[in-house]
Amino acid sequence: ACDLINNSTGYLAKYLDVNDFSMGILDIINLSTEEKAAMSVKCRQAALATSSYQAFERQIYKVYSNVPKTL
After folding, report:
1. Residue 66 to residue 4: CA distance in whole angstroms
2. Which of 34, 33, 38 is nearest to 10 (CA)?
3. What number is the average pLDDT over the span 57-65?
4. DSSP letters along 2-19, please?
5. pTM of the prediction?
6. Angle at CA of residue 2, ends 38 and 18, nearest 5°
7. Whole-angstrom distance, CA of residue 9 vs CA of residue 46
8. With 90 as the cut, is the pLDDT of residue 12 above it?
9. What CA–CA distance (Å, rounded) separates 70 from 31?
10. What is the crossing angle of helices 33-51 and 53-65, to 10°?
11. What is the DSSP string of 18-30?
12. pLDDT at residue 3 greater than cutoff 70
C-alpha cells in the first residue's frame, strides 16, 4: 500500500514518528477545497487502478498468461 500513498493521494508518515504523523495530518487538514477535491480524484483513480474488477481481471490474466502451456 505504501506505493499508493504519495503527496497526491495522501500522506505516509515515517514509521513510529509521531511528529511526522501529526504534521501529515495538519498538512491534509490545511489543504484548500480545490486541493482536497484533486486529492479525492487521485485517490479514486488509484483505488480503481488497483482494486476494481477490471484491475482484478488484469492481474488474473497476467498470472495465467505466465503459466506454462504444458501442464
Report:
1. 25
2. 38
3. 91
4. GGG-STTT---PPTT-HH
5. 0.69
6. 90
7. 8
8. no
9. 55
10. 40
11. HHHHHHHHHHHHT
12. no
Between the alpha carbon of residue 70 and those of residues 38, 65, 67, the distances in Å are: 48, 12, 9
% pLDDT > 70, the chain:
93
DSSP-derived 3-state class of residue 61: helix
Q: Per the structure block, which three cell numbers stand in for 59?
A: 492481474
Q: In whole angstroms, give the CA distance from residue 34 to residue 49.
A: 23
First to last CA, the chain: 34
Cell of residue 51, nine digits: 482494486
Q: What cell does 5 get?
A: 500513498
37, three cell numbers: 477535491
Residue identified by cell 477490471 is 54
Q: Give the model's pLDDT for residue 5.
A: 73
The 8-class DSSP code of residue 52 comes to: S
